[in-house]
Amino acid sequence: MKKIIFCCFLWTLGAHAQTPRVLVFSKTLRYHHVSIAAGNVAIQRLGLENGFQVDTTTNAAYFTEDSLRHYAAVIFLSTTGNVLDTAQQADLERYIQAGGGYVGIHSASATETDWPWYGHLVGAVFNGHPPQPVPGTVVVAAVNHPATLGMPLRWQRTDEWYNFRNRIDSLQVLLLADETTYAGGTNGTYHPLAWYHNYDGGRSFYTALGHLPEHYQDSLFLHHVLVGIQYAIGQNHLDYGKAYTKRILQ
């Protein structure tokens, strides 16, 4: 994997003495992507090269207020199923309301699909995909954006092409799928694949790409993920005085 460092971009990290720390969460209760291991290694490498610390876990017990307050962002790496209990859900809501950051990669959108708040945080809900990964074309929607830097305007790649439902209107779309280049797309001529937005006091970045292990050796994809992480980290500051969801104590 090539060394990826991106220092001068629109989303600068806060000038704080404390090194930002991110939590990579990859618990799966449905399909388990074999690419998760490669994703964990790649994100740890990105952290070493770009000035943030990385913890990785499949343990939902990290989703308590006492734990989350130590992280500038949480990354849901190909999670699936209902991975948090109600108390953990409430503490994630409070974390975002306090100004925390969220990054969702690939099947993060197939996680907690019956929890409307989480669907809004991601920006859309998974709604199926073609039977297997196939070649297709990604269209860059935000040409001069840091998260698409270096990508060809029409990026040919093999991936698992997600369809979505319940997409919210406020998304800043970065990448689109060209459904004419593969079979099984159901979102039509406007099919977002990656986006970011501010939500409920925090920041959210999502990319549907990243199904295969080799994607985590791809410098274009890793740069895309890196900028998303840096956006989610933001100013690396939490203010729990702004959180309004009530905690559920167990």
TrEMBL record:
Protein name, entry field: Cytochrome c
Record lineage: Bacteria, Pseudomonadati, Bacteroidota, Chitinophagia, Chitinophagales
Organism listed in the record: Chitinophaga costaii
Signal peptide: 1-17
UniProt superkingdom: Bacteria
Gene3D superfamilies, sorted: 3.40.50.880
Domain ThuA-like: 21-232
Keywords: Signal
InterPro entries, per database record: Class_I_gatase-like, ThuA-like
